[in-house]
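Predicting holo structure, guanosine-5'-monophosphate bound.
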Amino acid sequence: MDKMEKTLFEKICDKEIPADIVYEDDQIVAFRDIAPKAPTHVLVIPRKAIPRVNEAQPEDQALLGHLMLKAAEVARSLGLGEGGFRLVLNNGADAGETVPHLHCHILGGRKMAWPPG
Ligand code: 5GP
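Done. Tokens:
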């Protein structure tokens, strides 16, 4: 089967596009968002190119659990453990998804509004 063209975030995983990486392991990469929406704004992505959580499969359960736990660990490592932080997954057009490679936003360093816009 032909390999689809790499997503922007796969290229970041493979170091073909530079990014300010704050954590990486064999399953996930965390890097600073290029257009931060909060004083701390990091994206945590699986190396596996799952387009969005709506397309995740049962076999992705451990990977997504790992991603969630590491997102909290990264948030703590960036000093957000005490004040708090928000984790966001934008799924699809109505949610504002712009990059079709699953990513969890870590947002922190300021007071967040609720409900989100
Ligand atoms: P979405 O809107 O899909 O939930 O989030 C995509 C995020 O990726 C946006 O916050 C956007 O600023 C970020 N982004 C887009 N292109 C790049 C890039 O080339 N490098 C980095 N570090 N972030 C990017």
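Residues 61-77 form the longest helix (17 residues).
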